[in-house]
Structures are given as structure tokens and as C-alpha cells.
């Protein structure tokens, strides 16, 4: 493994670790946040949901943009946005400001996550070395979820809930320094033109679907709100698929799903996320 490869792997894994940690560590600080910012359960739910919704709905669009504009460039932009919004979360004087900062943080996380695998694929062209890099990447994700509650609890108890977000800042700055100086730029030479209608319908459909899944247990799966959200998600996602099938330059070529390897990877990812 060359020095450039090691730096790329370190930057991608560290950035992925903090964005995954922010899914888990915040849960341990919610009770303290509720007291400090004088909020109720509804406000606390949005502290979690704003991040999750932004991450889930923006990630595919970010990947499409990165293929055209440059993966390193988008990675640096997403990392900078995530780091700055982490400062905003830590400094939030009200629950409304915290929720807004969490949504911006989720967008930055989505951009980082969308390009991370592409950066590793560029840095590790050989099959054997790429497999090792992906194994390290997967282990990073698993470890982040495993230690997240412990890290969140220790920071909240020892330093206060704002440190759950401040801990991202030195890691983010270090990753930015590595990305700017040690990570090579890459683009897809056959990148497709930006499909605006497809982006709108896909993003809207994913937003409604994820929101319904987040609130289904609380509202009741048969409630008008959840049924309406799921129906809207189906309409928008079906419209997105139809548009992709009719487009000469689709954002996601539907023919990819005829590949057992590609379709199996998507099913495995869905099962793991669930």
C-alpha cells in the first residue's frame, strides 16, 4: 500500500466514522438536551430525524453530482459543511437552531458518504488491495455504531452534551487537511447529464418514505398520516423509475438491476440498514 493510498483510506474511514457516530451518539445526550434547551419529546425527535432525513434523501443526488463535478471536490465540500454545522450544533441556543444545524449536518454527511466508496475505488484499482480497503471501511462503520453509545455517554457525562458535536471538529479539520493535500481528484468520464426531474422525484419520494418509516411506530402504521406519506412516496418513486426508463441519459440506469451482483448488493444494503 502506497503512502497516497494510506492517506486516502485514513481520510475516508475517519470521515465515515464521525458521520456514523453522529447517528448514535446524539441519542445518549437527548435527555440532557431536553433540560438544557427546554424542549419536549417532539423537539428531541426532530434532532434525530432532521439528520437522518437529510442523510437518506440527499445521498443519491450527491453521488450523481460528484461523478460530474469531482469526487474529491464534493468530499471536501461535504466534510467542510459537516464540520461547520457541527460547531453550529454545539453552539445552538435553542432547539430550533439545533434542529436546523442537524439538517445541514446531515446534508454534509450525505455528500461524504456518497463519494467515499468512489474515492476508495479510485485509490485502490487492484482487486485484492481494494478488497482490503473495503474491509477496513466496513469495519469502520460497524465499530462506529458499536462504540457510539459509549462515546456519547462519556462525552455527555464528562464534558456536556455540546461535546457530542464538538468532537467532530478536530477530526473534520484533520480529514480536510488530508483530503486537500493527499487525495487525488477523480470524475466519471461518462457521467450523465444532471436529470433534474429525476432528482426531484427521487429525493421527494425518499424523503416521504424515510419520514414514514421514522414515525410509523409512533403514529400507527394505519394512521392517515403514515398511509398518506407512504402513498406519496410510492407515487414519486414510481414516477422517478418511469422517468429514468424513458430518459436517454438516466441518473440510475435501470439495466443495472438486471445484474445479480448489483441487485444483490442493493438488497443486502437494505437488509443491513433495516
Distance, first to last CA:
34 Å
Rounded average pLDDT: 84
Order of helices and strands: HHHHHHHHHH
Sheet of most strands:
none
- The helix content, as a percent range, equals over 70%
Number of contiguous helices = 10
Shape descriptor reads globular
* Number of E-state strands: 0
Structural class: mainly alpha
The low-confidence parts are 265-274
Describe the structure.
This protein is mostly helical. It is built from ten helices and no strands. The longest helix is centred in the first third of the chain and has 34 residues, at 3-36. The two termini are 34 Å apart.
Q: TL;DR of this structure?
A:
Helices cover 82% and strands 0% of the residues. It is mainly α and 274 residues long. The longest helix is centred in the first third of the chain and has 34 residues, at 3-36.
Annotate the secondary structure layout:
Elements: H1 3-36, H2 41-69, H3 71-91, H4 95-123, H5 127-158, H6 163-166, H7 168-182, H8 196-219, H9 224-246, H10 260-273
Helix pairs in contact: 1-2, 1-4, 1-5, 1-7, 2-3, 2-4, 2-8, 3-4, 3-7, 8-9
Q: What would the keywords be for this entry?
A:
disordered C terminus; globular; 10 helices
Amino acid at each position: 500500500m502506497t503512502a497516497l493510498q494510506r492517506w486516502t483510506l485514513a481520510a475516508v474511514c475517519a470521515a465515515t466514522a464521525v458521520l456514523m457516530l453522529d447517528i448514535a451518539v446524539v441519542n445518549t445526550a437527548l435527555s440532557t438536551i431536553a433540560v438544557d434547551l427546554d424542549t419536549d419529546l417532539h423537539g428531541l425527535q426532530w434532532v434525530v430525524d432532521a439528520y437522518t432525513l437529510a442523510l437518506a434523501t440527499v445521498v443519491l443526488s450527491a453521488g450523481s453530482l460528484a461523478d460530474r463535478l469531482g469526487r474529491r471536490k464534493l468530499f471536501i465540500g461535504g466534510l467542510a459543511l459537516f464540520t461547520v454545522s457541527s460547531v453550529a450544533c454545539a453552539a445552538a441556543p435553542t432547539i430550533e437552531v439545533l434542529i436546523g444545524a442537524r439538517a445541514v449536518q446531515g446534508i454534509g454527511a450525505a455528500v461524504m458518504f456518497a463519494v467515499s466508496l468512489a474515492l476508495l475505488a479510485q485509490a485502490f484499482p487492484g482487486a485484492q488491495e481494494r478488497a482490503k480497503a473495503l474491509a477496513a471501511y466496513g469495519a469502520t462503520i460497524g465499530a462506529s455504531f458499536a462504540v457510539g453509545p459509549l462515546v456519547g455517554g462519556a462525552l455527555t457525562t464528562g464534558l456536556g452534551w455540546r461535546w457530542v458535536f464538538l468532537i467532530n471538529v478536530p477530526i473534520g479539520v484533520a480529514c480536510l487537511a488530508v483530503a486537500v493535500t493527499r487525495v487525488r481528484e477523480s470524475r466519471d468520464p461518462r457521467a450523465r447529464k444532471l436529470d433534474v426531474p429525476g432528482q426531484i422525484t427521487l429525493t421527494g419520494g425518499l424523503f416521504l418514505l424515510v419520514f414514514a418509516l421514522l414515525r410509523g411506530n409512533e403514529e400507527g402504521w394505519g394512521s392517515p398520516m403514515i398511509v398518506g406519506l407512504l402513498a406519496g412516496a410510492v407515487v414519486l418513486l414510481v414516477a422517478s423509475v418511469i422517468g429514468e426508463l424513458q430518459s436517454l441519459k438516466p441518473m440510475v440506469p435501470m439495466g443495472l438491476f438486471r445484474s445479480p451482483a448489483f441487485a444483490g448488493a442493493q438488497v443486502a444494503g437494505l437488509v443491513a440498514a433495516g
